Amino acid sequence: MHKEIHSYTLILLSLLIGDLTAQTNPLWNEQKIKNYLPHMTVPEVKDFLTKSDLVIIPIGALEQHGAHLPIGTDIINGIERCKLIAQERDILVAPIMMVGQSPYHMGFAGTISLSAHLILQVHMEAVKSLIAHGFNRFIIMNAHGGNRAISTLLVDQINQTTGGVAVSFSQAIQPFNKVTNNTRGKVLDRHAGTGETSNSLYLMPALVQLEKALPPTTLNLPEHLKLMLPEVINEEPTAKMLFLAEGLKAEETGKSTSSAEMSSSGVWGERDPKESTVERGREATEQMVQAAVRFIDKWNALASAKIGQ
User: Fold this and answer.
1) Between 1.10.3470.10, 3.40.50.10310, 3.40.50.800, 3.20.20.70, what CATH number should domain 37-187+285-300 receive?
2) pLDDT per position as a tens digit, 51-60
3) pTM of structure
């Protein structure tokens, strides 16, 4: 009798241990995404190369976005946009690094900033690796304004020094992008404002804490830049060029235009971020995805003509 009880106890214990070891990471909630390189196996990449040699690389940042958006807003939103495009067409989504150039945000805890030289070097090495595997065409998506010069130089260096062909995402889709939601020319509404917050509500809803958004504050700018602001808001080319040449610079430059010097909340805007909506973000994202699809179709057609020569 005792032997039977002992046997039953061992069996029960083994079943319980089996159940415990069968449990998986309770934090894991990610699903496998088509054409997303970090999720793919070697056979899947080889199979992809039989259909396409096209890659999209988002370049984002880890920087402050006020009290309601995460530090990773730029890179997360950039990757999510690329994933959506890759569900429509065969294009490999290959994020290389999370960090960008954000020295003017360093007054806020959590921001990480790398030098332009390092960001360029890392992406060039990654592109060369992809070229070695057979990828030849690259779309560079700049998902952070502070990386604009870096992404432009990256496109140029790929074209000048490798066998690959690269284009800038924003330039590539511009002829195909029929923007209908235009709120420019009214009030300042930029970094972590209603546009970026609306996009985030659509692209990464679980990470937006809209209830924590702080009310808008007037930017604290040097007087001559303050006088330029109305024209900058209206996208006047010369005013915008001069404003950006001096504005949004690291504190150590002495220009008094770092984020912390301009805005105690980190938000650059006169509209309340709580006015943001999922619908606005959905509309903007869908317009962008369709513009990207039309560009990819055009490039694929022209590439096919080249191969047929």
Assistant:
1) 3.40.50.10310
2) 999 999 999 9
3) 0.90
